[in-house]
Design goal:
120 residues, mainly alpha, Arc Repressor Mutant, subunit A, 48% helix
Length: 120
């Protein structure tokens, strides 16, 4: 039985906005397929398809979060993680996400309220 040689993962590459725009334009022109453009520039077909789709989303031609919205979400998620770490390291009591003060056995608040009629 022959052992299959596994390819080493390629180092992550970064591309200029101009290069990305050129790739998208070549795909949109229609004289070459997405697969052919990817092959010609030594890119994965999936990466090229995702870049074309994101460009269409940013231009309002397709539904979904724009690049700026994605960046904002990523920044907010990083901030949430940072705040959670800070909160945990402050030494305060840890609360389980399922049990919070005032929760009954089924997660329903058991705080009592009183109904007051109209004042005379």
């Amino acid at each position: 039985m022959e052992s299959m040689a596994k390819k080493k993962p390629r180092a992550r590459r970064s591309f200029t906005p101009e290069f990305k725009a050129e790739i998208v334009e070549l795909c949109r022109r229609g004289d070459r397929s997405v697969g052919q453009v990817a092959k010609d520039f030594d890119l994965t077909e999936t990466a090229v398809r995702l870049r074309v789709a994101q460009t269409e989303t940013d231009a309002g031609e397709r539904e979904g979060p724009t690049s700026s919205e994605r960046a904002e979400l990523a920044a907010l998620r990083r901030e949430n993680r940072r705040l959670r770490r800070t909160s945990r390291s402050s030494g305060g009591p840890r609360l389980s996400p399922r049990r919070r003060p005032g929760d009954g056995a089924q997660g329903v608040s058991i705080t009592a309220t009183r109904v007051v009629g109209p004042s005379d």
